Amino acid sequence: MPRFNRLAEWLQWQESLHPRSIDLGLDRVARVAQRMELRQPGPFTITVAGTNGKGSSIAMLEAMLLRAGYSVCSYTSPHLLRYNERIRINGTEVSDTELCSAFDAVDTRRHQDSLTCFEFGTLAALGIIQDRAPDIRLLEVGLGGRLDAVNIIDPDIALVTAIGIDHVVWLGNSRAAIAREKAGIFRSSVPAVSSDPDPVDSLGEAARKTGARWYGLNEQYHYVINTKGWNWTGPCTQHGSLPVPVLPGDYQFDNAAGVLMVLELIRERYPVDRGSIDSGLQEVRLPGRCQFTGGTPETVLDVAHNPQGARGLAAVLRKRPVTGNTWVVLGMLEDKDVAGFTEYLAPVADHWCLAGLEAERGLTAAALGARVSDAINPAVIACFPDVTAALGHASRAAGTGDRVVVCGSFHTVAEAMAGTV
Questions:
Q1: At 277, which CATH number?
Q2: Has residue 383 been placed in a domain?
Q3: Is the alpha carbon torsion for 57, 209, 119, 127 positive or negative?
Q4: Could you tell me the pLDDT band of residue 170, with boundaries at 50, 70 and 90?
């Protein structure tokens, strides 16, 4: 008999299974994966690591590959509203029933090994994907790369997106150190693609030491934006007058360029026609990434939670100015660079509604306020117990021509979305 029959029960139980919520290392998860026979050769695998841009890159890859007629399974994290969002089968979220069955399979074979929630979920996802036997599986690294549970799988292509400062307790406090951790997904003779426009030397060095086949943005492949869209040039193929990615932000060109490099590398086995590329760029959807929801006032939802993400969000807001004020609803976790994040947003924000987060490591509004006091005038700050209260105040106080921006964490955006769907 399974331990539980309901998804909510499984997820609650997993939170208490391991003594630490984050406990990087591959020994436990590899042992269980071996028992589950998940480490044998599986579907063609593209693993994606990076600080920012992982979700966008996977969403674009998924959209293009599905348009081209291939079966695709994707594993991403974290989710916004439903745990099921983490595993997509040909673009459709996996069901509660299938998740519960997969969790039971992990539980049955883990024996005495305790697992973190992420390790448990990763094994379940790999089991589901193995059963579905797609043409291609897309795996997003949860944290870092070298010691992340996803790294028990050897990829056929490794893609590393933009690298910034985040998760410094676990990955290091410099881009060079973090890049070395991300490079842990590289393998000898396997293509290693970087879509970071400001490359870190240590990433390329790690690729060379590993023996991976290196493809760097502005090195082996390039793109140019023009009045007709943008042009992309790779080692063997070119694409002219491509449509602008529908996902907002100029940084999406970097992500899309990396995706096209991946498609060039798989073209002999999984060719993707130009129509599928164009459709993927124009049709891809990814909730919570500079998502403009419309309405009055205009609301923008963005899961940006580190300085690099804040810089990208600020650039989007500058390109889409409003006639009135910008109200920022901000909730963040205690391990984030709050000062660095708010420093980038301060020039484009007029009012700040600081929200407490009840999530693990969530900051109270008062604690958040103490950490932004140097970057923001206290006269434009108001504190609220939670996101719902902060968003409610901002929406009521906003006048004609104003907008509301919700950001700082997946938890912040999720709470805002939960109150509007």
A1: 3.40.1190.10
A2: yes
A3: positive
A4: low
Look at residue 420 in the predicted model and tell me its pLDDT: 58
Residue 9's CB is within 10 A of a number of other CB atoms, namely: 14
**pLDDT confidence of residue 184:** 95
CA atoms within 13 A on the CB side of 379: 1
User: In angstroms, rounded to a whole number, what is the distance separating the alpha carbons of residues 88 and 198?
Assistant: 31
Please report which helix (H) or strand (E) contains residue 390, including its range: helix 387-397
Report the number of distinct structural domains present in the chain.
2
Same structural domain for residues 405 and 373?
Answer: yes
Reply yes or no on whether the pLDDT at 56 is more than 90: yes
Cα separation, 325 vs 398, in Å, equals 8
pLDDT tier for residue 421 given thresholds of 50, 70 and 90: very low
Q: Where are the beta strands (DSSP E) in 228-380?
A: 229-233, 238-242, 291-294, 298-301, 326-330, 351-355
Same domain for 390 and 304: yes
**Residue 177: pLDDT over 60:** yes
> What does the pLDDT read at residue 24?
82
Q: What are phi and psi of 46, to 5 degrees?
A: -115, 115
Q: CB neighbours of 36 closer than 8 A, spacing ≥ 6?
A: 105, 106, 109, 123, 126, 127
Check whether residue 272 and residue 357 sit in a common domain.
no
Range of the domain at 59: 7-283
